[in-house]
């Protein structure tokens, strides 16, 4: 943390974080700070630990307790998880990249699926008490995603791109300070990818912080100026996109020859 910077200005501060999944350590000695409202991309090959890092940020997994280890989120090292999850939104990849939780989601309307995000539920069960404020926040989240037309549509009738809009609206329903996205364009066709990326650009311009995990160069929005490279459960580089998104760096990271193309503000690799 820079001198004079308040703890509240930090979204995340990790020090010497090691995480085990089963009997295997999958994150090794991670040191990482992210400012609240910052736009960051975490890039690396499949299996490098990107998703586990997101899970550590959201307290879905816990680090091995060792001297010097620290996890501090929004300036605090202890949180009630229900309260913490109001401060950030998470959009996971899912097995197909488009799933909403629970078997009843298919017969749930778009608006109800977003409202259910307040309760981390798949649908609005009879025991859940929904306020008018919640309904208003859900309608606002759909509007931010330009998805108000999906409010009454059943999730089972939506395309993959439309489901992704509902997923992000659920993540935005608390008006979070930071949005975490794991492989956001997974399973989307080219048109849906373009729509998603333009939507994320708009959120970034509105001031929502983005932490975007991907192995696709095309997912890295022009607004993202900082890139973190991961390999083998370790952060191997952290710096400006101009320095890290190069042929040499990416060829080494993915252990294969990489070519990079540019289309106006966007980068593409093959």
Verbal overview:
- The chain has helices at 50-57, 81-84, 110-115, 132-144, 160-172, 190-206, 241-244, 247-254, and strands at residues 10-21, 24-35, 39-43, 70-73, 88-91, 178-182, 209-214, 226-231, 234-240, 260-263, 266-269.
- It has 270 residues and is α/β, with parallel strands linked by helices.
- A hairpin with a 2-residue loop joins β8 and β9 (234-240).
- α4 (132-144) packs across α5.
- The longest helix is centred in the last third of the chain and has 17 residues, at 190-206.
- The protein is globular, with a radius of gyration of 19 Å.
What is this structure's SSE topology?
Blueprint: E1 10-21, E2 24-35, E3 39-43, H1 50-57, E4 70-73, H2 81-84, E5 88-91, H3 110-115, H4 132-144, H5 160-172, E6 178-182, H6 190-206, E7 209-214, E8 226-231, E9 234-240, H7 241-244, H8 247-254, E10 260-263, E11 266-269
């Amino acid at each position: 943390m820079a001198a004079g910077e308040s703890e509240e200005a930090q979204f995340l501060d990790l020090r010497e974080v090691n995480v085990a999944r089963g009997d295997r350590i999958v994150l090794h000695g991670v040191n990482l700070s992210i400012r609240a409202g910052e736009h960051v991309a975490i890039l690396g090959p499949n299996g490098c630990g990107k998703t586990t890092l997101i899970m550590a940020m959201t307290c879905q997994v816990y680090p091995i307790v060792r001297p010097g280890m620290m996890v501090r989120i929004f300036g605090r090292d202890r949180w009630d998880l229900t309260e913490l999850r109001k401060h950030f939104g998470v959009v996971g990849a899912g097995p197909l990249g488009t799933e909403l939780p629970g078997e009843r989601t298919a017969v749930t309307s778009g608006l109800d699926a977003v409202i259910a995000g307040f309760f981390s539920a798949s649908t609005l069960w009879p025991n859940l008490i929904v306020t008018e404020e919640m309904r208003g926040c859900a309608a606002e989240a759909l509007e931010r995603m330009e998805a108000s037309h999906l409010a009454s549509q059943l999730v089972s009738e939506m395309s993959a791109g439309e489901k992704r809009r509902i997923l992000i609206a659920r993540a935005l329903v608390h008006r979070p300070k930071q949005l975490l996205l794991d492989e956001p364009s997974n399973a989307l066709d080219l048109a849906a990818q373009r729509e998603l990326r333009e939507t994320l650009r708009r959120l970034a311009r509105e001031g929502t912080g983005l932490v975007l995990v991907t192995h696709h160069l095309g997912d890295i929005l022009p607004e993202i100026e900082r890139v973190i490279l991961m390999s083998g459960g370790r952060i191997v580089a952290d710096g400006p996109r101009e320095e890290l998104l190069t042929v040499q760096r990416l060829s080494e990271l993915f252990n294969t020859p990489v070519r990079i193309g540019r289309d106006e503000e966007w980068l593409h690799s093959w």
